[in-house]
Design a protein that fits this description.
This is 4-hydroxy-tetrahydrodipicolinate synthase. Keywords: Amino-acid biosynthesis, Cytoplasm, Diaminopimelate biosynthesis, Lyase, Lysine biosynthesis, Schiff base. By secondary structure, this protein is an alpha/beta fold. It is 40% helix and 13% strand. It has one domain: Aldolase class I (TIM Barrel, Alpha-Beta Barrel), CATH 3.20.20.70. It contains twelve helices and eight strands. It has an eight-stranded parallel beta barrel, surrounded by six helices. It is globular, with a radius of gyration of 18 Å.
């Protein structure tokens, strides 16, 4: 088991894609390569998030991925996503994950059900109580169809393992309301392109899609954003990052990584498909721009 890592030493977490082979099975050789690339860049690794198509995988596949990555004895932290809408299943998932050398969890809002503040508070209380490991709450109303409110955040601040928030609503006012409600909780941007703005508002770092395609460059982008002394960060990054979200994530980033030769296929699990992306020109331009960025 890894020694306990200081999570504050990792301002960038890569929401890792799940690579598939030609038969649409998990490609573990490629997964190892991708994980090693992130380790070389000293990026934290998030497994089985929306970018990793976690909810499209069988439970057996989810377990196998976690066990495999944990077996690699990495020197960077591993965070695992906890998401869905069946609380019993999520508690069982945490029970399994607690047996593995995992450093942290990403706790998503319950999907589809659209609970209010009481229901959300109870959901997160149950999950936070099921582990002693650090937890990052995930506000992503674009996927969960409901926003976590500042009141819910405040309701949960007494949990010692409530470590951080991933704020992915794209709204700086929401970011600031979370900071006011829980000044001792670290807040990470969930939007690559907004990282310089969120850094100015006090963000601790970024949970990134772009770092899949550009591990080293995204790490430097985050360092410069947090330093606050590098003007014009948006000049290169905004257009490049936008190219990764022209259709549903992770379709574009997988297509780009296939073009880069880093994925053997751009395959995704249904209902997602790389056939949604009819033109790669914007991705190719973005890739050339980022790889020449300094």
């Amino acid at each position: 088991m890894k020694s306990q890592l200081d999570l504050s030493d990792y301002p960038l977490w890569t929401a890792l894609v799940t690579p598939f082979d030609a038969l649409n099975q998990v490609d573990y050789d490629t997964l190892k390569t991708l994980v090693n690339e992130q380790q070389q860049a000293n990026n934290g690794i998030l497994l089985l998030g929306s970018t990793g198509e976690g909810l499209a995988l069988e439970i057996s596949e989810q377990r196998a991925i976690v066990e495999y990555v944990c077996s690699l004895s990495l020197c960077v932290p591993i965070m695992v996503a906890v998401g869905g809408f069946n609380l019993t299943q999520q508690l069982a998932w945490l029970e399994f994950c607690n047996t593995q050398p995992i450093d942290a969890y990403l706790l998503g809002s319950p999907l589809y059900a659209k609970p209010g503040e009481v229901g959300q508070t109870q959901w997160f209380e149950a999950l936070l109580s099921a582990t002693q490991r650090p937890c990052m709450l995930y506000n992503v109303p674009g996927r969960s169809a409901v926003s976590i409110t500042a009141k819910v955040i405040k309701n949960l601040t007494h949990y010692n393992n409530f470590w951080a928030i991933k704020e992915a609503s794209g709204d700086i006012a929401t970011f600031e309301s979370f900071r006011d409600a829980a000044p001792n909780i670290a807040i990470y941007s969930g939007d690559d392109g907004l990282m310089p703005y969120f850094a100015q508002a006090g963000a601790a770092g970024l949970v990134s899609v772009a770092a899949n395609a550009w591990p080293e460059q995204t790490a430097e982008f985050v360092r410069r954003s947090l330093a606050g002394t590098f003007p014009n960060l948006f000049t290169t990054w905004t257009g490049a990052v936008n190219s990764l979200f022209t259709v549903a994530n992770p379709i574009p980033v997988k297509v780009l990584m296939h073009t880069q030769g880093r994925l053997s296929t751009p395959n995704l699990r249904p209902p997602l498909t790389h056939q949604e992306l009819s033109c790669n020109q914007a991705l190719n331009i973005a890739n050339k721009s980022i790889l020449s960025w300094n």
